[in-house]
From TrEMBL:
It is a peripheral membrane protein. It is found in: Cytoplasm; Cell membrane. InterPro entries: HflD (IPR007451), HflD-like_sf (IPR035932). It holds the Pfam family DUF489. It comes from Vreelandella sulfidaeris. NCBIfam families: PRK00218.1-2. HAMAP family: HflD_protein. Its main location: cytoplasm. Belongs to the HflD family. One of its GO terms (cellular component) is plasma membrane. This is High frequency lysogenization protein HflD homolog.
Amino acid sequence: MNPTTPIHRAPDSPAARQALALAGVFQAASLVDELARTGQVDPRAWETLIEATVDTNPESFEAIYGGHPNNLRRGLDTLEALVGRKQANPVVLRYGFSLLLLMNKLRTNNDMMDSLGQQLTRIQGQAEHFGTTHENVIASLGEAYQETISTFKTRIVVQGDPSLLQSRMMPERVRACLMAGIRFGLLWHQQGGRRWKLVFQRKALRRALDSLS
């Protein structure tokens, strides 16, 4: 992430903050799909997700996503599809809603939340030593996901190129992305986000997206 990126103060509107957090969820979903199909990923979108997941004690709301809404542009574009303004990718939407479902399961499992918190604190130390997107950090995030979220009966089945999905570091990268989606899902819930609002308060989400464009 470019350290000179100006910090844009996060909007005070709860709906806009929920939209930003939800954009992180769907950005993760979008990158999982991209990794699985192409093996490549948008560097800025990827770094934003990983840094948000590794930083367990951000100094502000906007610091979570690197200080600028454009760092979540992939996710914001996906939300535009969710409210009907753009063509939706059904696979990405499925991943995103599955992440919200898994986040809710995690949120009510105190033991798993504690375990995950301890693992992320350790991974933050790794990131400070090696760098946020170093292979060791990504491998640790993937392992943390596998040991916690992957133990739920509800699973996210990733579709894509089987040879790519089995290639070196690809399972870890996909799981690290999914972990980032969970992280932003928890943030969305903390900001008052609820699934029913996505159905009954679409106008509020549209207005929030307009304010972030």
